[in-house]
């Protein structure tokens, strides 16, 4: 009770500021009303696997062209909003400008969007960073969010379930066709969890999904150990033509 009262008092003295414009945040506690209205949150109708938004309802099992051409290894990936000029700063500053205070807000959004797959998950793991990136950035943004989602849902989080021993080119710098090749074989399963994950429903956490190649490769590695299901949740999704 004391903690709750203290929190309310602090909010009165130091009102939470918007993650984008730094004005006073709205009732959601993370964005002001103006900035909130500029974020394009993803909703149905959408692809049954990657949630690519459709202009009209094509049926609950309809797939987007990308998932038809290269069906991902994961069961479903749920993003919160579209990655564009209005939302990209949220992620860029979170990853590169130490704005890790946004972690809790992001975790809340992702938990709300993926509530059904989260409640059926046995454990959570982030997409890993190569040690050179981790050294330069000092933290794995996906691991921060994964830990927060785990705390909220009371689900075990294994930050080092997947390893990234092989350095590769950034996915964002590559054309679509090269992304699948770029991530092939770059991840490995931490051997100390090899027996533990058998039969488990695993949720992978990342910041952005584009083609789904990275998440699919993570799922492929995990499914070698006969995991029951691999799902994913991300903060954003890139959509061709959105900027």
Sum this structure up briefly.
The chain has helices at 2-13, 33-38, 65-69, 88-96, 103-113, 115-119, 131-137, 141-153, 176-183, 213-223, and strands spanning 76-83, 123-126, 156-157, 162-163, 188-189, 201-209, 229-238.
What would you note in describing this structure?
The chain is of the alpha/beta class and 243 residues long. The chain folds into 2 domains: 1-38, no CATH class; 40-238, Rossmann fold. Helices cover 36% and strands 15% of the residues. It contains 10 helices and 7 strands. It has helices at residues 2-13, 33-38, 65-69, 88-96, 103-113, 115-119, 131-137, 141-153, 176-183, 213-223; strands spanning 76-83, 123-126, 156-157, 162-163, 188-189, 201-209, 229-238. The strands form 2 sheets. It has a 5-stranded parallel sheet. It has a two-stranded antiparallel ribbon with strand order 4-5. Helix 10 links the parallel strand 6 and strand 7. Helix 5 packs across helix 8. The longest helix is centred in the middle third of the chain and has 13 residues, at 141-153. The chain is globular, with a radius of gyration of 18 Å.
Quick one: overall form?
globular
CATH secondary-structure class of the largest domain? Alpha Beta
Strand order of the largest sheet: 1-7-6-2-3
**Gross CATH architecture of the largest domain:** 3-Layer(aba) Sandwich
CATH topology of the largest domain: the name is: Rossmann fold
Multimer state: single chain
Helix content: 25-40%
Put simply, the count of helices is: 10
Low-confidence stretches: 1-14
Give the total of domains: 2
Give a short account of the largest sheet. 5 strands, parallel
Question: What do the pLDDT scores average to?
Answer: 88
- Give the strand content: 15-25%
Q: What is the CA-atom radius of gyration, in angstroms?
A: 18 Å
